[in-house]
Amino acid sequence: GGKFVPYGTCSSNTNTGDLCEIAHKHGIPLSGMNQAWFKQVVVPFSMKRFPGVFFLNADSFVVVDRTGKRYACEKDFYQQRGMQMYQNPDRQLVFFVFDKRSRDLFA
User: Fold this and answer.
1) N or C: the chain end with fewer CB closer than 10 Å?
2) 12: alpha, beta or left, given left = phi > 0 and alpha = psi -120 to 50?
3) What are 90-96's contacts with CB under 8 Å, separation 24+?
4) Distance from C-alpha of 64 to C-alpha of 23, rounded to nearest angstrom
5) Core vs surface per residue 61-87: b (16+ CB within 10 A) or e
6) What percent of the chain has pLDDT over 90?
7) What pTM did the predictor assign?
8) Kind of pairing, strands 52-53 and 61-64?
9) 50-88, pLDDT tens digit by residue?
């Protein structure tokens, strides 16, 4: 089995890196392996609920890191947000701050 990675991903949880081992064994170069496709995961989450977040649905909200700093445009593509989260320890858990109106309309 593959190593558990505590980040959301678009890959299947059955992907364990077999192709990487095969390619390495046969001298086949792999590129872009550092460009994983990330998605944000809502916690608490349940795998039955498909916890991935591709779009933050609301029109009056901010996303802040654990220090309370807004770090990106909330309408960025999910890959951009995911990479920003991955690259900074203060952003491995972020907070979606919104008002009651947004919760009523979009939650």
Assistant:
1) N
2) beta
3) 90/65, 90/66, 91/65, 91/66, 92/7, 93/43, 93/66, 94/40, 94/63, 94/64, 94/65, 94/66, 95/63, 95/64, 95/65, 95/66, 96/56, 96/58, 96/61, 96/63
4) 40
5) eebbbeeeeebbebeeebeebbbbbee
6) 8
7) 0.58
8) unpaired
9) 555 556 666 788 889 989 999 888 888 777 887 888 888
